[in-house]
Task: structure prediction
Amino acid sequence: MTKGATLEARATAPFLRTTAVPAADTIMHIKTAHDKDVIEFRNYSDSALQARVKRHYRGMRQNQTVAFYEKMEEKYSFAPGKHRAEMTVREAFQALEAYVDSSDPDMDLPNLIHMLQTAEGIRKAGHPDWMQLIGLLHDMGKIQFLWGKREDGQEGTGEGAQWALGGDTWVLGCAIPSTVVFPEFNGLNPDEQDERYNGRNGMYEEGCGIEQLKWAWGHDEYMYRMLVANGATLPKEGLAMVRYHSAYPWHDKGEYGQFMKPGDEMLMAAVKKFNVFDLYTKDEGKGVDVDKVWPYYQGLIEKYLGTGPLRW
Result:
């Protein structure tokens, strides 16, 4: 299969949705400047950033447990009076200007650029404005570094500890599948030695639904909760794109099928649709003029999130 055909095949995969979306993506408009093939992305074996990425995933596997998730759930609560700051999305973007994701083997540029490239790719492909906004917001949960600590894996530099900010997520509270990246680190996870959590189903019931699972804590879960807490009027598929775009063992490797319930297939299809853009718009040779495109995205922010500062 040729490069163009490979991308096109991914772009035109079925997308179950309740909101009308054009039938196909003009994916060739968002090729990287380096003309990378699909198989060159998500290289976890010998990328130029291999040492940093491997250290990141070792930290994730050593520290992401059910107990840690519950600790972060309490720390980042959006219960009345418990939010950490009030900011507009633009102010949050400014806080993230220099943030570099240590888990990403494809790109060594500030995450802000990646988010804008994702949004612009979705926009050029003709998808609905709510999906464009998801592209802009999907990684903003990494703003947790403002309130994070090294011991909690929430530092804001590429060389710092970020194991609770980014990276592929897996379900906590049941056996870690061998399909995760760097499976050689699975045995380092304390919950793998706990009989409550190391079985195939672990602490969950079959058919409980994907939304009932505790995924490794990071930007995805935080941002999902932030959007819900602020009353975002985004469709359920959009919220799923935010919450599960890093859940590669599920949407890419087919794990956790025993937990799915009716409707979860729709959410998975939405995440797969989004991830075409999350992955293949990364382009170290092309920036985005923030001042030029921002008025358009500000309109989307106001449409789906209101006009005032948001609780973070």
The first strand starts at residue 86 and ends at 87.
